[in-house]
Amino acid sequence: MMETIKKFKFPILMVFVFGVLAVMAPAVAARSTQVTWDYFKEMALILPPVFILMGLMEVWLPKDKIQKWLGSGSGMRGGLISLVLGTLPTGPLYVAFPMTATLLRKGASITNMVIFLGSWAALKIPQLMVEIKFLGISFTVLRFGLTLTALIVMGFIMEAILGRHDVMEWLPPEHDAMMTKQPDKMKM
After folding, report:
1. Distances (CA, A) of 169 to 54, 108, 112, 179
2. In angstroms, rounded to a whole number, what is the distance separating the alpha carbons of residues 98 and 54?
């Protein structure tokens, strides 16, 4: 029983807080219920196609190609590919995280994945078009340049910090079965 409580302590705490909120401020509780339901529907519509895409990436993208195009030796070409891949899609940022984990497992460099995630979050083409319309081209070009420079610097810093490890123990294992069967052998 205690093990189950420890395992689900955050959901239990959330239910408790919601219960207190429902008693103390019913209008706020009703609004939070609506927001939670809206996010649940959004994720229920977005995540299944993402999981299908992740499965297809596992099968269709060979490891040697990922290492060649996005790996440590890819240089500026890998950074440019990461930038383009990050600026093209539309959708929430949480879609990019499983893609990044898959690419890292297949040999993509940490620097390129930081550029990919950062450009997904801050340099999307539709976002840039709206920014040009409302803030002007000079502001947008300056912000794009500064953001890209910051992403490249952050990528190198993350590579220096996380690249020190012989194995990427910070990266979660590929399958849950690996965690339960071999928790001490989660080496890549």
Report:
1. 21, 16, 19, 12
2. 7
Count of Cβ atoms closer than 10 Å to residue 92 Cβ: 13
With 0-12 CB in 10 A as exposed, 13-18 as middle and 19+ as buried, what is 117?
Answer: buried
* Interval 116-129: pLDDT, tens: 999 999 999 989 99
pTM for this entry? 0.71
What is the count of structural domains for the chain? Answer: 2
Domain final position from 24, 41, 60 = 60
| Domain termination residue (choose one: 17, 32, 60) | 60
Q: Are 65 and 77 in contact (CB under 8 A)?
A: no
**Which is it for the CA torsion 166, 118, 153, 107, positive or negative?**
positive
